[in-house]
Amino acid sequence: LTLSEQQVAVARLALLLRTLEIDDAVLPAILDWLDADSETRFPNGAEDDYYMRQSPPYRAANRAFADVSELRLVRGIDAKTYEKLRKFVTVLPMTTPINLNTAPIEVLMSLSPAFDRSTAEMIEQTRRVRPLRSVAELLALPMVAGRPVVSEGLAVNSQYFNLRMQVRSGDSPFTARALLARPG
């Protein structure tokens, strides 16, 4: 069985929602927000016909997210759900693998339906001793070996880095963020 990059990403998002105890009924609406068509996924999807009935009315993006905060516009994503999810998702200019050496425990749990918190914590402890040097090294770990894990979309390094800055001058705080890219 060969899965497309998109199928793997959707499966991992579904597992992340489960890990974060977010109702997976939001998944069809997220996918509708991203896809280019105006066909509503059943059940719980949402396209322009749903969003145009909101106050104020707006349209589904039908494209990739421009910013993580855009999730707040998606059907079923309330403030509580957004706060749970925003720490574990990002928006980048291109499809980017998950860095196994920096992924939070919750993201590690989304790599396989066979990964529970205990497994993810053991992976984290292993990489603290020595960072993983390859995806194959993850797959060979005793707590992982023999479990179903799709290796596509995984890496042991990062191309993008989020820089957050906070400067205070007297009583005036200034906060900025920048996305840094490492070429090649």
What does this structure look like?
- This protein is α+β, with helices and mostly antiparallel strands.
- Helix content is 32%, strand content 13%.
- It has seven helices and four strands; from the N terminus they run ααααβαααβββ.
- It has helices at residues 5-19, 27-34, 48-51, 79-86, 105-109, 117-129, 135-140, and strands spanning 98-99, 154-155, 160-169, 172-181.
- The strands form two sheets. The protein has a two-stranded parallel ribbon with strand order 1-2.
- The chain is globular.
- The chain starts with a helix and ends with a strand.
- The model has no long low-confidence stretch (mean pLDDT 93).
Labels describing this entry:
184 residues; alpha+beta; two-stranded parallel sheet; two-stranded antiparallel ribbon
* Count of DSSP strands: 4
| Rounded Rg | 18 Å
Helix content estimate: 25-40%
Give the spatial strand order of the biggest sheet. Answer: 1-2
In terms of per-residue confidence, which ranges show pLDDT below 50 for 5 or more consecutive residues?
A: none
Overall geometry comes to globular
How does the major sheet shape up? 2 strands, parallel
User: Total number of helical segments?
Assistant: 7
Average pLDDT confidence is: 93
Could you give the order of the helices and strands? Answer: HHHHEHHHEEE
Q: What structural class do the secondary elements suggest? A: alpha+beta
- How many angstroms does the end-to-end distance come to? 31 Å
In terms of DSSP E residues, the strand content is 5-15%
